[in-house]
Write the structure tokens for this entry.
Amino acid sequence: MALILGIESSCDETAAAVIDGNGTTLAARIVAQRIASQDEAHRPYGGVVPEIAARAHVEVLGPMVEAVLADAGISLDHVDAIAATAGPGLIGGVMVGLVTAKALAMAADKPLVAVNHLEGHALSPRLADPSLQYPYLLLLVSGGHCQILEVAGVGRYRRLATTIDDALGEAFDKTAKILGLGYPGGPAVERLAREGNPRAVPLPRPLVGSGEPHFSFAGLKSAVMRAKDAGIHADADIAASFQQAALDCVVDRTRIALATAALGMTALVVAGGVAANAALRGALEALAASHNLPLVAPPPKLCTDNAAMIGWAGAERFALGYSDPLDVAARPRWPLDDNAAPVRGAGVKA
Ligand code: KG4
Ligand code: ZN
């Protein structure tokens, strides 16, 4: 067994997991995991309030680590390394998790592995599907990021595309807010969309047809707002039409990326919170099949933020000999591909 304690606290989920890096199935790899959502605390504000998030992490994380070790039937002495998200994310929350991991590492004399949250998402499909081999083409769609990357190995990423304004999850969350569906928005929009007509409301498909596979969702969000203000459409039709427009964009952009990616990709892979969306998975399934590639998507619970993916990324890194000094810094911004060229347009979230 190669036991890794994983800690996640970069946004509004506090999570801890014990991972066996030598496990050969998903069930054997996740020895124990716990997750506490802060949805209730943030709901009145319609989005995550960083200070509330950081305080909630402080309250929850310590007892949660004790509980997850008890669930796994081990003590801290039994773990081989402690992995924690060191960024990118809301810096107060990241610091809570990273400082906790540092204290545990120091007290128990264990190696620390500082994990990039995006690498957690990027490698989560390998946690879920032990047969997934590098290199693969990854669509990473979360609340803060919307990128297409070639994943050649641990720490080896080439970014083919990013968003020039909003992330896909952000577009879902803003649409939910416009429709008064509350927070978090993605699952609520998906539920309402099932009751609507995806062709009822004419909405734009920003950047569809452009040669580079980048994304843009700000114009779509404004069009959703105008459609709502017009007062003539059922909310379910707006939700369904929004989701269809967003998915049309994602499929078109991913098709361009598949055409420009290096040869030898073993699979089309989708990860990050929005990968929990069943309509998105269905649309990508068809796209992958048309390129004779399998679509690999983690189970929905491993798509949204969790500590199993952080523990797994830590396990992959630790197996390659990587660990980090105890003074490693928390990073609010931490791109997977440092060499990616800046993209034209304002407010790029790389
Ligand atoms: O990966 P994640 O949990 O946190 C970040 O790292 O950002 O992603 C959260 C995002 C939110 O924007 C949420 O609305 C979206 O993923 N999301 C969904 C669904 N489930 C979560 N979007 C669309 N459909 C869903 N079923
Ligand atoms: Zn995330």
About this structure: The chain is about 45% helix and 15% strand. Residues 11, 142-144, 169, 172-173, 184-187, 190, 272-274, 276-277, 304-305 surround KG4 (ligand 1) (CB under 6 Å). The two ends are 36 Å apart (CA to CA). Residues 89 and 324 are 19 Å apart (CA to CA).
